[in-house]
Amino acid sequence: MIISASYRTDIPAFYGRWFARRLQAGFCRVSNPYGGAPSIVRLDRDSVDGFVFWTRNLVD
């Protein structure tokens, strides 16, 4: 599975430490933008093939 991360928030610019902790935990909870219960997304190596990060704050 490829995870498109930080489309709604800028993880690379603002939440790098949080993301590192989520990787250590092996999962994260994702809010449903249309209401309803949050989903749990596995982040372990067996489940994830790669991440796509979206940012507007690239550093040279």
Q: How would the blueprint of this fold be written?
A:
Elements lengths: L1 E4 L5 H4 L1 H10 L1 E4 L8 E4 L7 E4 L7
Parallel strand pairs: 1-4
Antiparallel strand pairs: 2-3
Write a structural description:
The chain is an alpha+beta fold and 60 residues long. It has one domain (2-53). It is 23% helix and 27% strand. The protein has two helices and four strands. The chain has helices at 11-14, 16-25; strands at 2-5, 27-30, 39-42, 50-53. Strand 2 (27-30) and strand 3 form a beta hairpin. The longest helix is centred in the middle third of the chain and has 10 residues, at 16-25. The termini are far apart. The mean pLDDT is 89.
